[in-house]
Design goal:
Layout (H helix, E strand, L loop, with lengths): L2 H4 L2 E4 L5 H10 L6 E6 L2 H4 L6 E3 L8 H5 L4 E4 L7 H15 L3 E5 L10 H16 L2 E7 L1 E2 L12 E2 L2 E4 L6 E4 L1 H13 L1 H4 L2 E5 L2 E3 L1 H12 L4 E4 L2 H10 L4 H15 L13 H5 L6 H7 L1 H4 L2
Parallel strand pairs: 1-2, 1-4, 2-3, 4-5, 5-6, 6-11, 7-10, 9-13
Antiparallel strand pairs: 8-9, 10-12
The structure holds NADP nicotinamide-adenine-dinucleotide phosphate (NAP).
The site of NADP nicotinamide-adenine-dinucleotide phosphate has 25 residues, from helix 2 and strand 7.
């Protein structure tokens, strides 16, 4: 066995973000690996407490140097259409430097999904597969963390849950659970190679979310159904990237019209993968109670 296989270097992209940050948290104390985070702001990454390499996906010249010597990669891109070009650059660089396994943070949906940005992630999956690099694909459903807000647009504010999906029931997943499965894929690439994991564990409508907040926090919460175009208007005013957010708006429209069937599907793979039970929305609300109380 080569030295790198006995003490593999694991690089976590998106480490200053929700899922990447949680992957770091899970891997930080694991012996037998050399853990690195990748960030475009070394200052922001400082609090992670692991060595950081500089990586700006919009600066191609930074990608190969960041990946040099890396054996296993947690691959994350942000909420922009540039994810397509960035992902291609990352995979090309990974191939060039000899990365052996990629755990890719993708998005939900079946291969025939009508949702555009889910499809973008599927193109990325296929590109990873074509590279010949061993892979594990993560396909999480809607993040519970979205309830904290989209960028700086609050979703739950002063007892009102404002969302854009009508009365659709959605399958929610805590980013911490996505990260735990990602971390396990990075630690045991042989066991998880070639696998696609759909991650979504609690199917609830936004009416259910408001009821759960009321029950658990003992304050009154109501759901205000808002039109999906209001989502786009608000996030664009807050400087989000238009092409990706247009896709999110379209997905909300499909959900609100009941035209995205399987978006409430709940999976039973988590306990088998992690030997833990997944977080429920109740767990999530209690964990972040202070952020929701008014
Ligand atoms: N929200 C959902 O419900 C949901 C559901 C399924 C899948 N997803 C997928 O989850 C992914 C996002 O995960 P997340 O919520 O953990 O993201 P996040 O919290 O927004 O974090 C994104 C990370 O990527 C980094 N990043 C962005 N642009 C970069 C660039 N040009 N160069 C280097 N780093 C860059 C950010 O760094 P900075 O801190 O410097 O900005 C940050 O660390 C997306 O691919 C999305 O499609 C989301």
């Amino acid at each position: 066995m080569s030295k790198s296989e006995t003490n593999p270097t694991v690089l976590v992209m998106g480490a200053t973000g929700q899922v990447g940050g949680a992957v770091i948290k899970y891997l930080k104390t694991r012996p037998g690996i050399k853990l690195l985070s990748a960030a475009r702001s070394l200052e922001r990454a400082e609090s992670l407490g692991v060595p950081t390499v500089f990586l700006d996906l919009n600066r191609r010249d930074t990608i190969v140097p960041a990946l040099a010597g890396v054996d296993r990669l947690f691959m994350v891109t942000g909420y922009t259409v540039e994810m397509l070009r960035q992902s291609k650059d990352i995979v090309n660089a990974a191939k060039q430097v000899g990365v052996k396994h990629i755990v890719h943070l993708g998005a939900c949906g079946d291969d025939d999904t009508p949702v555009t940005h889910y499809g973008w992630h599927q193109f990325v999956e296929r590109y990873i597969e074509c590279s010949g690099i061993s892979f594990t694909h993560l396909r999480p459903e809607i993040f519970m963390q979205n309830l904290m807000g989209y960028g700086n647009i609050k979703v739950v504010d002063a007892g009102v849950v404002r969302h854009y999906v009508g009365d659709a029931r959605l399958s929610w997943v805590d980013c911490d659970d996505v990260a735990l499965v990602g971390a396990i894929g990075l630690l045991n690439p042989e066991r998880h190679a070639g696998k696609t994991y759909h991650l979504g564990y609690d199917a609830k409508s936004c009416y259910d979310v408001a009821d759960a907040l009321t029950r658990l926090l003992r304050q009154r919460f109501v759901y205000a159904r808002r039109p999906p175009n209001e989502f786009l208007k608000n996030v664009l005013a807050a400087d989000a990237e238009p092409a990706y957010m247009q896709c999110v708006q379209e997905s909300f429209e499909l959900m609100a019209k009941g035209q995205l069937p399987r978006s409430d599907i709940v999976y039973d793979n988590f306990e088998k993968l992690t030997a833990q039970r997944p977080h429920t929305l109740d767990d999530f609300i209690l964990k972040h109670a202070a952020k929701f109380r008014y």
